[in-house]
Amino acid sequence: MTDYLTELAQQKVAILGLGMTGLACLRFLIASDIRPTLFDQQPENAAMVHAVNEFGLKINGLGDNLTLLNDHDVLIVSPGIPLAQPVIQTAIAAGCEVYCDVELFARLNKRPVIAITGSNGKTTVTELVTKILCDSGLKALYGGNIGVSVLDLLDQEHDVTVLELSSYQLETTQSLDCAAATVLNVVEDHMNRYNSFDHYAQTKAQVYQQTRLAVVNRQDSYSCAAIGDETTINTISFGLNTPVNNGDFGIHKECLTQMVNEQLVTICPVKHMALQGQHDIANALAAIALVKPFEISNAVVAATLASFSGLPHRCEVLTSTGPEHNQALWVNDSKATNVGATIAALESIAPQVSGKLFLIAGGDGKQADFSPLQPVLAQNVDGLFAIGEDAEQIACLLDELGTVVDDLPTAVVKAYEQSTVGDCVLLSPACASGNEFNNYIERGLRFGQLVQSCIEHESTTQSVQHG
Q1: Within-domain flag for 467
Q2: pLDDT tens digits for 236-264?
Q3: Residue 407 sits in a domain of what CATH number?
Q4: Cβ neighbour number for residue 156 with a 10 Å cutoff
Q5: Which residues are catalytically annotated?
Q6: 75/27 same-domain check
Q7: pLDDT tens-digit profile of 31-48?
């Protein structure tokens, strides 16, 4: 690890963007006796200034300081800052090397890495892979787009690093040497950042150029295309159909299976998994494929799948349903921040609903095309409450069954009034949180609070009436 740090210490290093990632980079460089120059578009931000005061550094703004910025050898850019910004393009033209914290990690790391990207399912697969590894006796830590900064993992004792990677992080990452990596799926997302859908997909695909085992979703055309027609990379696939090629994973006779030496080997029955739903079965298959280089027994994998029940805000059931509850089933899928995630949620949940299915969706669509939602809504949804900046575009997808409402509290109240036992109310926004919330977590937590308030209000009303 010290070789590249020694080289870096001889260069002029700058950090652009002092959010969570930028501050993690700063702490790491200071601990390595490297004092970077700091830049941010909001140099007077009180929280940032306080965070860097202990290091005796100041935060430079841009504009008048462009000459200073361009006088550096290395510019570490926070992933949230688009590389297309003129200030970054000018730095690149001036000969400055530009990358993010993941690339710095890659140049320093000596441990095996499993890398996971895709439009949907990244966090679930990342945590499931980590749990399988730990249950097998290995010590695995995860980071990247979730959890701690990748740089914070370098000094922690462990056997395997599991990375969730966004397309933003992959834009400037070229040096990962992964034991296994996957592009789980690719659906339209972040169109406010990329020139085209192909540009977005190609950015995700870069992870396959940095791995020894490529794990491909054979039922996702863009995941398959990402590996290319001619490659020397060892490749295996996963999918919800029967595996055909040696090493591939899939489903056969309601069991998770792998094709081994032209024989189907059962890993575990689907019904024994704690996770259910087609998208989570696919996530489980991807996770099993990703740990293949570590030769973990099927017994360990099966035990992990039986105990891993998923993560908050991802098709998370908030209430039970039945006559004794006198209420619908409420499901929090706030993490569905793109159209593909909402389609997956609807296709997974709708078959399990005996009554009506009401959907709450909307927010900031990030310039996405909502039209793929229309046939899925028509087939599965009985009522739609649309919120946020793109509410009009979403509501019109379901004609007279789509209603624009002011905000999430209003949507929850209206859904509560219209739903009953056997029905389901699903929050699956197909959008980022937008102006109403800071992030999907805050949105999901607020949704849970609002549902609980409705239940408690009805319970109180009934108690008064019967009292």
Answers
A1: no
A2: 999 999 999 999 999 999 999 999 999 99
A3: 3.90.190.20
A4: 12
A5: 122, 145, 190
A6: yes
A7: 999 999 999 988 888 888
